[in-house]
């Protein structure tokens, strides 16, 4: 155990994970510097201004059992800004929206036979009452559902829902991931209805507050500073962190960026690089429409029709009132897809045109109601959680070089809460290996 004081820590990435790490470590007395390549902090929680308020580039909410998020909001004095809403969900297929909020709505779905509904209901009950996800880790969700509830249950219900999240990789996904997803959602219910949380003024408020606290603790948050190279200095066992025109020396490095991006800027041996590349990713295309009028009745609409490229229409202002955005209505269109596909690589203008033309098939008047369109894309948005998933360690082959990423999260889905759980693990590890200055 080293016992040096004044350890300098470089954190790569100012998403929620990097900033929360910066907050806790600077509070413990470490000298923290966070590097962020974009001009705006937040990573997937980056926000844009709409009217007097801000909203996330990518749709976000939290669940009732996101305890790490709730604890952080309490710690930062933001818990009073958290509002809980009853979510409203539908399935859109062949020109119609089908409400899907209660077991009764499920029983009324016209495209599933009564026997499949009963079998699916029993399968969900079995999953819900099973406390051990381990036994689901060796089977794909497709095989598990098909075996327990029949082919129709996969082809006409869970298959399209999984396709919406994992595209053509849907049939590879581990049933353990599904187990965790069901548990999160079931535990976020009140009176059989799902309840979701959203921070008044956006999660950008959480990001801004973390930065303020880090600065109060003498930490630094450097925006528009892409880390280009991280090198181990053999003489001192420290690290040189290089940005454009500048090299600085740090005792500890924590990477919160995607493993594929980390490989490009670090010098790990080939074996470790291969380990980091074991998990593959889907990208996300997300269109945020600012509209003059409300479109859908529901917050979350799952699109089952395969010819429509986006798989979710999320009407944010059915959740957080349009009054918060100067009367503007906000709708997201989301699609997870292969980042090397032709669609993902289309120019933004073309992508916007395609999405809006499909949206017009669903809401014929929508084009005339659009005030603004904001397109966001990210290459590494959703890790593909296959069977027998082996979680990566937070330690790397280099001492004092730690890593976390979406690939580190299992069996739960990646999310703000899971990121904060990683933060706790890494903070504890660093504290157990290094003694900082006490505050
Ligand atoms: C469409 C979508 C919807 C989601 N909805 C929800 C939701 O409703 N609820 C929920 O809990 N979670 C949701 N998530 C997941 C959640 O957003 C993520 O799990 C979380 O934000 C990840 O945070 P992070 O800090 O780990 O990573 P990131 O947010 O990816 O942050 C990493 C940061 O590193 C920066 N970076 C990369 N390379 C470098 C470099 N070389 N130098 C400096 N900086 C660099 C990036 O710019 C980025 O800011 C959603 C994700 C997506 C894509």
Describe the structure.
- The structure is a single chain.
- The protein is an alpha+beta fold and 439 residues long.
- The protein folds into three domains: 8-60 and 203-279 and 386-433, FAD/NAD(P)-binding domain (3-Layer(bba) Sandwich); 103-191; 281-383, Polyamine Oxidase, Chain A, domain 2 (Alpha-Beta Complex).
- 33% of the residues lie in helices and 25% in strands.
- The protein has 13 helices and 21 strands.
- The strands form five sheets. It has a seven-stranded mixed beta sheet with strand order 8-7-17-18-19-16-20. A five-stranded parallel beta sheet has the order 11-2-1-15-21, with helices on one face.
- Bound molecules: flavin-adenine dinucleotide.
Give a brief description.
The chain is 33% helix and 25% strand. The chain contains 13 helices and 21 strands. It starts with 7 loop residues before the first strand and ends in a 6-residue tail after the last helix.
* CA-CA gap between termini: 20 Å
CA gyration radius, whole angstroms: 22 Å
In spatial order, strands of the major sheet run: 8-7-17-18-19-16-20
Q: Could you give a short account of the major beta sheet?
A: 7 strands, mixed
β-strand number: 21
CATH superfamily of the largest domain: FAD/NAD(P)-binding domain
Number of domains: 3
Level-1 CATH class name of the largest domain: Alpha Beta
CATH architect. name of the largest domain: 3-Layer(bba) Sandwich
Indicate the proportion of strand residues. 15-25%
Shape summary: globular
Helix-and-strand structural type = alpha+beta
Q: Within the CATH hierarchy, at the fold level, what is the topology of the largest domain? A: FAD/NAD(P)-binding domain
Which kinds of small molecule does this entry bind, naming each only once?
Answer: flavin-adenine dinucleotide
Low-confidence stretches: none
Give the overall average pLDDT: 95
Total helical elements: 13
Helix content: 25-40%
């Amino acid at each position: 155990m080293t016992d040096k004081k004044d350890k300098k820590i470089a954190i790569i990435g100012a998403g929620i994970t990097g900033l929360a790490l910066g907050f806790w470590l600077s509070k413990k007395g470490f000298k923290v510097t966070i590097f962020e390549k974009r001009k705006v902090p937040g990573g997937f929680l980056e926000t844009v201004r709409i009217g007097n308020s801000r909203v996330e580039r990518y749709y976000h909410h939290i669940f009732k059992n996101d305890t790490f998020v709730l604890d952080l909001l309490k710690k930062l004095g933001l818990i009073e800004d958290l509002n809980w809403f009853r979510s409203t969900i539908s399935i859109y297929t062949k020109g119609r929206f089908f409400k899907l909020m209660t077991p009764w709505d499920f029983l009324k779905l016209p495209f599933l036979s009564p026997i499949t509904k009963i079998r699916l209901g029993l399968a969900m009950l079995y999953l819900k009452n099973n406390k051990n996800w381990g036994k689901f880790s060796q089977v794909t969700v497709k095989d598990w559902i098909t075996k327990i509830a029949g082919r129709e249950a996969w082809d006409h219900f869970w298959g399209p829902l999984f396709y919406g999240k994992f595209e053509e990789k849907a049939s590879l996904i581990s049933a353990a991931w599904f187990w965790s997803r069901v548990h999160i959602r079931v535990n976020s219910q009140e009176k059989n209805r799902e309840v979701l949380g959203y921070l008044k003024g956006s999660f950008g408020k959480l990001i801004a507050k973390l930065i303020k606290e880090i600065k109060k603790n003498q930490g630094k948050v450097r925006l528009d500073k892409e880390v280009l190279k991280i090198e181990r200095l053999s003489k001192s066992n420290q690290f040189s962190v290089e940005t454009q025109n500048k090299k600085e020396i740090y005792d500890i490095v924590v990477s919160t960026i995607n493993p594929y991006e980390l490989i490009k800027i670090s010098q790990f041996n080939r074996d470790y690089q291969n380990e980091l590349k074991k998990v593959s990713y889907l990208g996300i295309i997300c269109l945020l429409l600012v509209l003059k009028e409300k479109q859908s009745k529901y917050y979350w609409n799952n699109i089952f029709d395969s010819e429509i490229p986006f798989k979710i229409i999320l009407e944010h202002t059915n959740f957080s009132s349009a009054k918060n955005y100067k009367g503007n209505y906000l709708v997201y269109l989301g699609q997870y897809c292969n980042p090397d596909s032709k669609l993902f690589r289309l120019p933004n203008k073309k992508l916007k045109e395609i999405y809006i033309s499909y949206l017009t098939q669903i809401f014929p008047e929508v084009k005339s109601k659009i005030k603004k369109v904001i397109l966001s894309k990210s290459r590494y948005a959703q890790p593909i959680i296959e069977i027998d998933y082996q979680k990566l360690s937070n330690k790397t082959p280099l001492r004092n070089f730690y890593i976390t990423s979406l690939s580190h999260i299992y069996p739960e889905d990646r999310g703000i809460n899971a990121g904060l759980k990683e933060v706790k693990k890494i903070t504890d590890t660093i504290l157990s290996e290094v003694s900082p200055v006490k505050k």
